TrEMBL record:
<feature type="binding site">
    <location>
        <position position="72"/>
    </location>
    <ligand>
        <name>Ca(2+) 1</name>
    </ligand>
</feature>
<keyword id="KW-0964">Secreted</keyword>
<keyword id="KW-1015">Disulfide bond</keyword>
<feature type="binding site" description="axial binding residue">
    <location>
        <position position="188"/>
    </location>
    <ligand>
        <name>heme b</name>
    </ligand>
</feature>
<feature type="disulfide bond">
    <location>
        <begin position="33"/>
        <end position="112"/>
    </location>
</feature>
<dbReference type="GO" id="GO:0020037">
    <property type="term" value="F:heme binding"/>
</dbReference>
<keyword id="KW-0560">Oxidoreductase</keyword>
<keyword id="KW-0408">Iron</keyword>
<feature type="binding site">
    <location>
        <position position="240"/>
    </location>
    <ligand>
        <name>Ca(2+) 2</name>
    </ligand>
</feature>
<feature type="disulfide bond">
    <location>
        <begin position="195"/>
        <end position="222"/>
    </location>
</feature>
<keyword id="KW-0479">Metal-binding</keyword>
<dbReference type="GO" id="GO:0046872">
    <property type="term" value="F:metal ion binding"/>
</dbReference>
<feature type="signal peptide">
    <location>
        <begin position="1"/>
        <end position="22"/>
    </location>
</feature>
<protein>
    <recommendedName>
        <fullName>Peroxidase</fullName>
        <ecNumber>1.11.1.7</ecNumber>
    </recommendedName>
</protein>
<keyword id="KW-0575">Peroxidase</keyword>
<keyword id="KW-0376">Hydrogen peroxide</keyword>
<feature type="binding site">
    <location>
        <position position="86"/>
    </location>
    <ligand>
        <name>Ca(2+) 1</name>
    </ligand>
</feature>
Length: 317
């Protein structure tokens, strides 16, 4: 009886041990690639020095990746004649920053071949860009693996004109709370919206939930479309457009939300109290944003022997 118990215990441990080792953890590359995080940071800093908008681009890329198949870098795969990838899906046509991920990956491959996943590079690069924009630093558990599927038909992201309750369905399906959703949409404190998404708010007499002065300003920008700029863009945060802070929440409380979903956050009973707290407490928002980003970065990750470590982020091995 004792021998049987011991055998069962050994089998139990054999099952649990790989699962325990496979989980994400801070410092995952400390032995296999000690310079991994500093290499990614250097690539981000180089780009940020010439393009402050890269923060918004990476935040969007990270979100669009995690909310499809989980944080598995499926968004990075290029389409081929035989197979189209997530990149060609409508919501992803304006996602950018891919070449920065390529640059970081190339540098990592020269030092630590086939060690650092593209999924981890996205997460680390996004964090580093937030810090450079005066946002919070947060330690990122790493150890993600890259996915082997990228299908444009699976890209079903919450649109910018959805009501709060409907947008929340997408977040809840990924294990996120309403507080998480409002927090993550606070990333709109950096970035822009293209005029094509704003026409419904500025035509006719304008959206009554938007400050009339902002309506007039956006009309002027979007009405200036021409051959060289067929689809102009508008800053989502009209206060501190390149600084990562809580100004976005102050703006939407003043009816200066550019996207419909942003403005509704301040008006809807499900979210307005959260908006109010963040608008009055910058430290609270920074802390919650760090927590929400780590939580989002854990969505449906591949670990252990699942997936792969791509040599080229744009192509399956």
């Amino acid at each position: 009886m004792m021998m049987r118990t011991k055998v069962m215990l050994v089998l139990y441990l054999m099952i649990l041990l790989p699962l325990a080792l496979a989980q994400l953890k801070v410092g995952f590359y400390s032995a296999s690639c000690p310079r991994a995080e500093s290499i990614v940071q250097a690539a981000v800093r180089k780009r940020f020095d010439t393009d402050k908008s890269i923060t918004a681009a990476l935040l969007r890329m990270h979100f669009h990746d995690c909310f499809v198949r989980g944080c598995d870098a499926s968004i990075l795969i290029d389409s081929t004649r035989q197979n189209q990838s997530e990149k060609v899906a409508g919501p992803n046509l304006t996602v950018r920053g891919y070449e920065l991920i390529d640059e970081a990956k190339k540098a990592l491959e020269s030092v630590c071949p086939s060690k650092v996943s593209c999924a981890d590079i996205i997460a680390l690069a996004t964090r580093d860009s937030v810090v450079l924009s005066s946002g919070p630093f947060y330690a990122i558990p790493t150890g993600r693996r890259d996915g082997r599927v990228s299908n444009p038909n699976e890209v079903n992201l919450p649109g910018p004109s959805l009501p709060v309750a409907q947008a929340f369905q997408s977040f809840r399906n990924k294990g996120m709370t309403m507080d998480d959703m409002v927090t993550l949409l606070g990333a709109h404190t950096v970035g822009v919206a293209h005029c094509v998404f704003l026409s419904g708010r500025i035509t006719g007499s304008g959206d009554p939930t938007m400050d009339p002065a902002l309506v007039a300003k956006i009309r002027g920008i979007c009405g200036a479309a021409n051959g060289s700029s067929p689809d102009p863009s508008v800053f989502l945060d009209q206060g501190t457009s390149f600084g990562f802070d809580n100004e976005f929440f102050r703006q939407i409380r003043l009816k200066r939300g550019v996207l419909k979903i942003d403005q509704e956050l301040a008006n809807d009973r499900l979210s307005r109290r959260i908006v109010s707290r963040f608008a009055s407490n910058a430290t609270l928002f920074a802390n919650r944003f760090a927590q929400a980003m780590v939580k989002m970065g854990n969505i449906e990750v591949l670990v252990g022997n699942a997936g792969e470590i791509r040599k080229n982020c744009r192509v399956f091995n």
